[in-house]
Every structure is written in C-alpha cells, then in structure tokens.
C-alpha cells in the first residue's frame, strides 16, 4: 500500500490565492494610478502624471503644466471618494485640492471629479471636472459644460469605495 503525502489545507488555500492573484498581477490598481497622477501634480513631477493620461493628451498637458508651474502651487490633495463603474473598467475619483498662486499667496480649495478608465493594464485619467470651491488653473472652467465623453454627469451614482490614506497622506494633514 502506498501512502499519499498529506497536504496542509493552509498550503492549498495559499496556492489557490496565489493563482487568483496571478491573473490580475499585470493590472495596476486604480489607487496606485490615482496616487501617481496626483502626486505628480502636487510635487510638479508632470512627466510621471502624464503617463496616467491617454497618449494623445500628454503633450498638451505637459505644455499647460509647464506654463502653470511658474505661479501655481498645489499645497495638498486628498482623495475624498472613489466610485467604480459596474464594468470595473471605469471609475470617478473625487479629489480635493488645496492650492495657491505665488503671485498672491491666497490659499484656495477646489473639489474636482476625475474620470478614469482602465485601458489594458493601466488606469488612465481621461478627464477632470470642476465640482465646487474656487476655480483652479488647469481644471476645466466651472461655468463651461463639462466634456464627460461617457454620457454621465460628474456626480453619477457609482458604488462608493472607502479610501484609507497611507502614512504619507497623513504627514500633510492639518492637526
């Protein structure tokens, strides 16, 4: 009689989870894409931010940010909420910016809704609409009709996903 080696249920569970994770390993998580883009805006790493835009929009974005960087300073940003689309390929991200112009030094607050779409392995920020607060250079004019491109308004009802800030987000938080 041959005996079969005994396998631990924990080992089998770990193997199953590893196999599930392998299917999504090549897709960058939305949260990382949002952070890379908004950190790029915050810290003036515009080339990094541009990589999260569709290729056709990158040159215009870099030209615009180069002009704005002479005066505009983003002091802080906060991801307020994330709403995923039912297909898992689009999302809306509510972002609150605190910013000022060096020419006047007045601190402003602006809320926007960023529209994101998953394109192959990466999430791309395909648009940003003014939501409320002070008009911010580099964000669509709040009086203009937003170009949403998907037939939905900026506050469309997508499921809310809670956002838990990491420690780097807390370092700029008011105390």
Which key features would you list for this structure?
Nuclear Transport Factor 2, Chain: A; 5 helices; 30% helix; 5 strands; alpha+beta; five-stranded antiparallel beta sheet; 175 residues; globular
Question: What features would you describe in this structure?
Answer:
The structure is a single chain. The protein has about 180 residues and is of the alpha+beta class. It has one domain (about 30-170): Nuclear Transport Factor 2, Chain: A. About 30% of the residues lie in helices and about 30% in strands. A five-stranded antiparallel β-sheet has the order 4-3-2-1-5, covered by helices on one side. A hairpin with a 6-residue loop joins strand 2 and strand 3. The longest helix has 16 residues, at about 10-25. About 15% of the residues are buried. Mean pLDDT is about 80; it is low at about 10-25 and about 150-175.
**Alpha-beta content class:** alpha+beta
- Stretches where pLDDT is under 50 for at least 5 consecutive residues are 9-24, 148-175
- Strand sequence of the main sheet, in spatial order? 4-3-2-1-5
Q: Report the strand count.
A: 5
Largest sheet: 5 strands, antiparallel
Number of domains: 1
Radius of gyration: 20 Å
CATH domain fold name: Nuclear Transport Factor 2, Chain: A
Helix content: 25-40%
- Residue-averaged pLDDT, rounded? 80
CATH class: Alpha Beta
Shape: globular
- Write down the secondary-structure element order: HHHHEEEEEH
Helix count equals: 5
- Measure the end-to-end span: 70 Å
CATH architecture: Roll
Taken as a percent bin, the fraction of beta residues is 25-35%
């Amino acid at each position: 009689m041959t005996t079969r080696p005994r396998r631990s249920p924990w080992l089998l569970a770990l193997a199953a989870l590893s196999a599930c994770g392998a299917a999504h390993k090549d897709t960058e998580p939305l949260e990382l894409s949002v952070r890379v883009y908004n950190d790029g805006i915050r810290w003036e790493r515009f080339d990094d931010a541009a990589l999260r835009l569709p290729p056709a929009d990158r040159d215009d974005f870099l030209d615009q940010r180069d002009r704005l960087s002479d005066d505009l300073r983003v002091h802080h940003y906060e991801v307020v909420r994330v709403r995923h689309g039912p297909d898992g390929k689009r999302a809306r991200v509510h972002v609150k910016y605190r910013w000022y112009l060096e020419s006047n030094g007045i601190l402003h607050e602006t809320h926007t809704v960023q529209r994101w779409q998953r394109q192959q392995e990466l999430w791309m920020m395909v648009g940003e609409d003014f939501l409320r607060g002070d008009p911010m250079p580099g964000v669509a004019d709040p009086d203009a009709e937003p170009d949403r491109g998907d037939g939905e308004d900026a506050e469309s009802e997508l499921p809310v996903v809670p956002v838990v800030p990491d420690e780097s987000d807390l370092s700029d938080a008011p105390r």
